[in-house]
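step=predict obj=DUF6149 family protein n=194
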Amino acid sequence: MKIRQNARHFASRKALELPVVSDVVKSKLVDFHTKIFLKKADPDHQEERRERLDAFFGATMDSYLAALQEGAPEAEAREITHIQANFDFYNHGWTEMMEFPGDELEAHYERYETFFECHGITIADPLGEFEPEEMPEAPSTPEKLDNPEHPHAEGGFADDVYVEGDDGEVRIGGQEEPEDVDISDAVGVDEGEA
């Protein structure tokens, strides 16, 4: 999968690991991801998906932190959460929201199979043990699976994590965490809160 990575990602990671600030950052990251993916959704179905996406992305913040705690680099931990989201989008027939084509689901699963199995995550159960007790449902569009359209998907990146930096260069595996990470660069944090 191809994702972006910049100083803001590292700042958000650091902020998620801190007491007090983590709740603010998590809330802002959830809002941020919900907005991004709702823009990719069929306009007729955007609002009915909002509540589920909010809960889903809240749960993936927990899987992101678990992956980091288990030693995954930042880019891989974040990619895991995007893969989980794409599993859920596929399961609901929300193919227009997918970031990679449906025929790459299995390949993406296999790359992180150890992590996924450890936490009960499958393609059919994308949150596994991270699923909240009350997970909102949203209507599916299974008819889209018959002839899927993936206008936002980029195929051919299933063998590794590909990271596009601010310079536009794509690197396999991402970049090392900078030494001078400033949490005021995190999503939802300004210098006064930091």
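step=describe
The first strand starts at residue 2 and ends at 4.
step=end
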